[in-house]
TrEMBL record:
Belongs to the OSBP family. It comes from the Eukaryota. It holds the Pfam family Oxysterol_BP. InterPro entries: OSBP_sf, Oxysterol-bd, Oxysterol-bd_CS. This is Oxysterol-binding protein. Coiled coil: none annotated. It comes from Podospora pseudoanserina.
Amino acid sequence: MDSKTVSSRLRELVKFLGTVKGDLANVTGPPSLLAPSSVVEVGHCWAQRPAVFAAPAHEPLPEKRSLLVLKWFLVALKSQLYVAGSPGPQAVSIKKPLNAFLGELFLASWTDEENKACTELIAEQVSHHPPITAMHVIDRQNGVRADGYARVEMTFNGNVNIRQVGHAMVHIDRYDEDHLVPLPDVKIRGFLGGCMYPEITGTYTLHSSGGYVSQVKFSGEGMIRGKRNSFEAKVYKKDDTKQRAIYTLSGVWSDGWVVKDAQTGEVLEMFKHDAVENEPVPMDIIPVEQQDDWESRKAWGKVLNGMAMGNLEAVTREKTKIEKAQRLMRAFEESRGETWEPLLFQSISADDFEVFHRLADGTGHQLADERTKGVWRVKDTQVKNLQRPFRAGLTPLGY
């Protein structure tokens, strides 16, 4: 992309953002600034390295399991936040995913034969106003699962500020152990400099029922260290009032980091995203023509084809068809006094979510269920018995 095109797109984006008041999350941006994927695909970052996801199941020491869950959390950030782009001078290619429509689904899996690990991802848009996406990742063979959901709120004040209201919970069957994982807030910076990039700042903690805490302090360009996407982290025992580190980590979450034994200073791991052994494994997804009408890539097929061909007129036309049909469906449901029922997830009462309250006690973590229409959990039986077509006689276009 030449500098003239970059500058033109940035001017277009800043002009557009300046006209929007309030939450940007459900606002449709200019077609040239859209990513060729939907919000429901974002969960691929949790699942695309099956060996990393399964690793805690094979670790007997609880402090090391906390370290491995922390690694999984950090590894996912790059592909989660650099949407349709990558770190470096061309980070301006970061784009906004398509706003998922109510009931949109994404089903995929990843198999790492060498490490005998396989992850499955189930994601569904369970609410459109406000936008809430629920996700479930599971490795059945190794007995590890992650359940999460997020309401995304976006505002613009020179930067795009993205707030994720929700959390993830990792469960390891072998040790009957749970890990509470936060969803960090993000800023998209670099508009004026012509190089957009995501940045996380602030401190976040992951808590395990095994008795350990992982604390991550994110910093970034213009701060103490002055390097984009920087962080420092440590793992410590929960009941240690001095929070003395057992393991330390430092580096750049979009590039690489070093893990050390805090007592001896020994380097335990040097992780690099671009190392061959750390590359994501290929995603398995059924061909688009065999997908159900509610599956993301089939539903947005004509929009994605328009993007691939550079035909922005087709992108706008086909995208508008879906959005208009969805508004008509909501109006029809309202006229009949009906409420949309998610297919694969259900909202439970916060009072019934004992594991969150136990892990979050005294930590400052808030459930905020009143902002996310409850606590979203997968319908295990429904997923196991899932068969296409999912909603016989009904498509996202209303027929």
